Amino acid sequence: MARAAVQRRLTWLQARMADSRPASARVRRLVFDVDGWPGHLPGQHVDVRLTAEDGYTAERSYSIASPPEDPQLHLLVEDLDGGEVSPYLTEDMRPGDVLELRGPIGGYFVWSAAADAGTPAEQRRPVQLVAGGAGVSPFLAMLDHSRRAGDPTPVRLLYSARSADDVLGEELLGPQTTVTLTRGAPAGWTGRTGRIDADLLRREAFAPAERPRVFVCGPTVFVEAVAGTLVDLGHDPRSIRLERFGGSTDPQ
Fold first, then answer.
1. pTM of the predicted model, to two decimals?
2. Which of 3.40.50.450, 2.40.30.10, 2.60.40.420, 3.40.190.10 would CATH assign to domain 2-105?
3. Looking at the predicted structure, is the pLDDT value of residue 118 above 80?
């Protein structure tokens, strides 16, 4: 994992699809074998490049949804109407097909057990993850890594999804996770409903007095609203790290 944190020249690598399976109602989990993959840290992302026969290229960035302990690379890709890249990845690409991939990228929005190595468990600052929709992807890598490493750092996830059918990575969501549904809940739902607001953050997130390291990922409007609320609640802005995607609208 240490190699992934070292500044190095990024080159395009050959990634061969090993599997493609549904992850939710609108998202597929794509699994790749990547020749020459150097390893990554939870929270990093990759660039994917597709090249047409006429030479036209299209690139998109995707968070890595698998932990560094997994030798294969997992991406969660939503099939977006009118998209240039996602329809090919989710509908046309088959196991054995190859694409170009560059990474891992990013050293700001990362957390791993190595970051707390040598610190007694009782002195470790907790980690608070706040996700909107597909923004949960890097946090699934963090949660899976934490469990595989047996790391004692307290980690919580507050996760906003449209519906129960849109929840990603259910196999990794334990008692440290709070899911809230924003567009209706199924019969028998006992979890939260509604958007992530100040009241929900007070109830379910680590308090400012606990000095958590906070990571927020999701659509731009979601991230900016949550970050502002966290600061209003008394969280240290220097301890809040943000990862945005999409345009100015909020699909949540």
1. 0.91
2. 2.40.30.10
3. no
